[in-house]
Amino acid sequence: MSPADVHIGVESRLIDDYYRFSQRETVGPAQIETGVTRSFRSLEGLVDGLLASSESTHVVVCHGNPDLGLLVPFTQNSPHNATGLLAGALVDLVNAMAHGTLPPFPPDPRLLDAGARMGVDTATVLRLLGKLLLLRTTPPLRRVIHFRACNFGRRTSMLAGYKLLFDAALVTGPTCRMLYVEVLPGPPRPGASIQQLGGQAPTTQRTRRRVFGPASDGTAGPLLLDVRDLDTHTHVDTPLSLLDHPAQAPRWGELLTGRWTNHTANRFVLPLLWQNDESSYHCPLEERYREHFLHV
User: Fold this and answer.
1) Quick one: DSSP state of residue 128?
2) pTM of whole model > 0.85?
3) Please, which residues bridge with residue 34 across strands?
4) Is the Cβ–Cβ distance between 168 and 142 less than 8 Å?
5) Phi, psi angles (nearest 5°) of residue 131
6) Are 14 and 181 spatial neighbours (Cβ–Cβ below 8 Å)?
7) What single-letter DSSP state applies at residue 246?
8) Is 167 left (phi over 0), alpha (psi -120 to 50) or beta?
9) Where residue 1 falls among pLDDT bands split at 50, 70, 90?
10) Please, which residues have CB within 8 angstroms of residue 126's CB and are 6 or more apart in sequence?
């Protein structure tokens, strides 16, 4: 299988770095390799990226909501970003266009309604529909799309709607929050050990603490990593990360993500899944991480 294209709809240095230096995505019981990264700023831009690619497998990173879907403007000039609210209607319109039952002049009332809900004119709606129709006829057909957007997989109906919208063979999405954090560890204070600190409660509120390792092959000592929830949705930080030898941080990037190729800095980027009613967070190579994805 050739590497999957990555489509990034979020302005984030951490996400860019992750897909640049890890080039791995956990999918089911295994990982796939990722390659080319593309940016998009609208649903139409995402469709443009899918059409421009010759790959059959794609990773889409974006803000998400279980009720509103992918949170990205419909088009460059659209003021609305709750694309999931209109996904079903767009599928119906693409079907009508495919069957020649969507007259543009005078505009079909369904076009007028879609334009009003998207905040754009009917010409823009028709342009988007035309591109969505091309997804059904432009190889490779029946793409596989792995959505990496918070809570996007919590509702089967939401995932199924986007599967139809993109004419995909398979779509996946997380059933909880998906976050990317920078791990930039320092050494513990004199007289303290990581194992000792690991048994203590974090000093910051809404913080989950884990100690990893040491590595079984002896290439890295134990890593302590605190992750703190800032807003119960999008933002977290890492108020404390400790490693006896901070230069081993890239090795921990490999151990926790499957690959990390940047060995020039004592840091790495870690994707994690965070369920608000759980006591810990989950990393890409762990079974609990894999269990938090829905496949449709």
Assistant:
1) H
2) yes
3) 4
4) yes
5) -70, -40
6) yes
7) G
8) left
9) confident
10) 104, 111
How many residues are given for the chain? 296
The dihedral through the CA atoms of 52, 58, 62, 66 has a sign that is positive
Tell me if 140 sits within 8 A of 56, measured CB to CB. yes
Report the candidate in 226, 219, 227, 229 with the shortest Cα–Cα distance to residue 197: 226
pLDDT of residue 186: 97
What's the Cα-to-Cα distance from 119 to each of 67, 83, 112, rounded to whole Å? 20, 12, 10
Determine how β-strand 64-65 pairs with β-strand 57-61.
unpaired
Phi/psi-derived region of residue 28, left when phi > 0, alpha when psi is between -120 and 50, beta in every other case: left
CB 23, CB 34: distance < 8 Å: yes
> How far is the C-alpha of 279 from the C-alpha of 283, rounded, in Å?
14
- Mean pLDDT for the chain overall: 96
- The per-residue pLDDT for range 88-145, each reduced to its tens digit, is 999 999 999 999 999 888 889 999 999 999 999 999 999 999 999 999 999 999 999 9
As a whole number of angstroms, the distance between CA 235 and CA 185 comes to 19
For residue 200, pLDDT beyond 80: yes
For the chain, helix, strand, coil in percent to 5 are: 30, 25, 45
Of 180, 194, 191, give the one whose Cα is nearest residue 245: 194
Helix (H) or strand (E) holding 257: helix 249-257
Q: Which two tokens stand for residue 262?
A: 């940047």
What 3-state class would DSSP assign to 8?
Answer: strand
H/E element, 51: helix 43-52
